[in-house]
Design brief:
Elements lengths: L1 H11 L2 H14 L4 H23 L16 H6 L3 H17 L18 H9 L13 H18 L4
Helix pairs in contact: 2-3, 3-6, 3-7
Length: 159
Amino acid sequence: MILQTMGTLLCNAEPSIILASITTALDRSDEAPFWRQKSLPFCEAVLSVLIPLRDQQLLFDPEGNPHSELSPTLFLRWCDLLSLRTLAFTLAKSNTAGKLLRTKIDTESYQPIDLEILGKYLSSYNVNLDNEMVDFPVTNYNLHIGMTSLLTKILEGKN
């Protein structure tokens, strides 16, 4: 039941409603408070860019392939810290160019996306936002694997 609900929310709802649903699912889970506290800002950062892409009908996966809806699977694909960093750079370059770059979507219809929430989040995990080739600490990558595992359970209704 929660999979269908989360799938519907990701396709249609505003970020605050999606985050409220995730919060409720996390509160009901048996996970340690540490994971719950880390996962919500993570979800907020991911949603801060995926929802505007969804609303512009410009969703794509980390390989640049177009997607017609924001599914739980697509959301989780972007939860990989390396993919999320790539998304931040793709959108920054697209904002500068005024069109969506580095994807297989051919469109001139692109509205710049606010990267403030995502940028603050990535910076808090030592992700260099000036040079895409600079690595970040592997411990931060591993932490995000743990958060993604928790979110997978939430989105698939296994809690």
